[in-house]
Amino acid sequence: MIKNNIIAYGEVLLRLTPLVHGDLIDQSSALNMSFAGAESNIISGLSNLGHNTTMITSLPKNSLGKSACRFLNSFGVNTDYIKFKDGRIGSYYIEHGTSIRGGKVIYDRLDSCFCFEIIKETIWSKAFKDSDFYVITGITPALSNECQKNILNSIKIAKSNKVKIVFDLNFRRNLWSGTEALKFISKIINDVDILIGNVGSVSDIFGFEHKNSNDFSELESITKSACEFISNKYSFDMIGMTIRNQIHATHNQLGGIIKVNDKYYFGRSYNLEIIDRLGGGDAFVSGLLHGLINNFKNDEIISFANACFALTQTIKGDVNYFDEDDITDFSSKNYSGHIKR
Question: What CATH architecture is 5-330?
């Protein structure tokens, strides 16, 4: 296996959810505690697949910050560049949906210590010296002006070190408007080598118009059109997009698409029962990068990424815990759920 050095920058959040899966917060007397964040989910998944990874972030100088750091370390993520400082950790609460009832996420991340930290150029220069990929998402620049400055500065230094930029659009309506997102993203998008997104994010940020559909083949066609739409505006080495047909909260059909050199690759889709709705797109990114780094053929890359996407939705938590053998075995065989003996 080929290993690359991959850097990510973003906020690590405290994740709190009712101890009984599917319960409402109103009826819960206990919450399960873990940690997550789009960038840390991606980097943890890549580390779990055997890559050398580094997380750049800020955490509070208390037990919560230490626990978050140990969580990253448990996957093998390098945390040497984490800054511990006074302040609070951002958090979010999840009520998992079931059947016809959708899930709900409540954020409590305003004024976290991550939002106000300006990272020194010397840190970026040292981190990117022997690195291959830099992972960022559209969530981080929506948090503060300081985060925007860090991203602009880090991209400049990353490009000077010939590091490839991986950018997941990850649009969040409760953090900023599509107009605000486009204003910032326009400053960095020409430096992006690999763009990740979905139809919704391309629509919200760039104004892609499309019809709604519950037919998966139509969703594939719409997603292909979204790739073409964004390709007509900007140039990328690769575009990857997830596809989700939500029959109800706990029954989804999942898939994805990549575009490389004007060719499209779809791979296999999966009908499955959802255990945990969050983190699937992040697992897709981890799988895509793993396949790309290891010189998989393009149809193998999307098959592997789709399998990561689907498998992560069958376990609790935001991170893909499966290794390459598990994922390859799942993607290449019947996934009827029989016990493997």
Answer: 3-Layer(aba) Sandwich (3.40)
